[in-house]
Each structure stands twice: as structure tokens, then as C-alpha cells.
Amino acid sequence: MNDMIIELNQLTKRFPVGSGFFTALTDINLEFGKGEFAGLVGPSGSGKTTLLNIIGSLDVPSDGSATVMGKSIASLNQKQAANLRNHNIGFIFQTYNLLPVYTVYENVEFALLLQNMSTNERRKAVMQALEWVGLTDKEKSKPSMLSGGECQRVAIARSMVKKPEIVLADEPTANLDSKNSHHILQTMQKLNEELGVTFIFSTHDEKVMQYLKRKISLADGKVVNDELVSMLQ
Ligand SMILES: Nc1ncnc2c1ncn2[C@@H]1O[C@H](COP(=O)(O)OP(=O)(O)OP(=O)(O)O)[C@@H](O)[C@H]1O
Known about the structure:
Elements: E1 4-17, E2 20-33, E3 37-41, H1 48-55, E4 63-68, E5 71-72, H2 78-88, E6 89-92, H3 104-110, H4 119-132, H5 148-160, E7 166-170, H6 178-195, E8 198-203, H7 206-211, E9 214-219, E10 222-228, H8 229-232
Helix pairs in contact: 3-5, 4-5, 5-6
GO molecular function, one term: ATP binding
InterPro entries: AAA+_ATPase, ABC_transporter-like_ATP-bd, ABC_transporter-like_CS, ABC_transpr_LolD-like, MacB-like_ATP-bd, P-loop_NTPase
Keywords: ATP-binding, Nucleotide-binding, Transport
């Protein structure tokens, strides 16, 4: 693998609980290169979302370091962290997080409004992203008119429209049936292969695991296994 775009060194995360604290992640050492299709797997409470949140600059390590695109997450002020998220990182959540009163087009466009782009440039980028996920014919629909699978494809388009280097997907198939799960996984796999976007999943879904090129197992906030799946086949 080429350049490391994410480096986690001796990362520990503690949350204040009552008068003490709870350690959610302990001494995590991981690196991710460009174009990886990797998954954090492990039981509920093992720390997957906490780790994704830190990589996504939504939270900071308590000890150790997280460096994303050359930037130390702990050293970023709010504006710098927002800038990193706006330009370099896309998010996909299990509940899609679409805005119900806006159309599919507007939901995807929303991600670009903080960027300095003309209306024409935005239109081109949004239609390109909808094309990636096969939804150009639904641009005027509201989320309530779409299936769960289609909503998740809108969320993928929204995460991809900024052409980020990294997409973080937290249980993206949790609310989808088997057919839709495979469809969105194939869509993400295609974007990974064709555009070189790095995907990191959090999951306990066996269907997601079939697609991963690298599987990192967490248990009680620690990495207990890290394997390249292609090397095992
Ligand atoms: N803000 C917080 N304050 C206190 N404890 C927290 C906080 N956020 C997470 N935790 C705890 O940290 C642990 C790891 O949580 P996390 O959400 O990362 O797990 P997960 O592996 O993503 O679980 P799931 O698969 O259920 O989503 C859990 O025990 C959780 O209760």
C-alpha cells in the first residue's frame, strides 16, 4: 500500500463517567493507506464508533495521536477540524441522516454549500455523484418517496460529492435488507476501485465483511486482530 493517510499511534480514549472515567479505546496502533477498503469489526461496545469519530475529527484522543491527511486531530481548532471534514472526509451513517424536507438533489448539494463553488459547478458535481449511485432519475424526489436502499445511496452520493479522500461508514447496512445491502456495498466497492477513495467501515454485518479487503477486529477497546483478507484467499 502507498502513502499512509491515517496514522493512529498509542491512541487511548477515555470518557468521563460519574466521578471517574471509562476507557473506550486502549493503545490503538493502526495505519491506513490510500485506497483501502477496511472494516472495524467487533461486538457492540468494542469501540468501533469511537474510533471512527476520532478519525473523522468529531472527537479527539485522550492520549496518543491520530494523524489524518498529515494533520494531528488533537491540534486542530474547531474551524480547522470542520475544514478537514468539509474537504477530505465523507460520512455515511446507519440512519442515512437525510433532511426530509429537501429533495435528493438538495440533500447532496447541501454538502457543497460550504465550499466556494458556482451554481453550475455544484450542479455538475451533484449530478455526477447521483450518477455514481444510479439515482439521477430521482433528483427531484423527497427522501420519504425512496426505499431504504435508495436513501442510503443518496447518503453515499452526499458523502462522495466533495470527492473526499476518506469515507467513514458507520454500520451502513444496519437498516437494509440483503439485496439493498449488496447493492450499496457494490456501489462503494466501485467508488473505491475507480476513484481510489479509502473506505473504513464499522460493522458486525457478515455481508459487509465479505467485501472488506482488510478486517480489523476490536474487543474491549483493543485491536485483537488485523488481517488482509485477499492474502487469506
Ligand atoms: N460519550 C460517551 N461517554 C461515556 N461512554 C461512552 C461514550 N461514547 C461511547 N462510550 C462507551 O464506549 C464504549 C465503546 O462505544 P462505541 O460506540 O465506540 O462502540 P461500538 O463498537 O461502536 O458499538 P456498537 O456496535 O453498539 O455501535 C461503549 O462501552 C460505550 O458505552
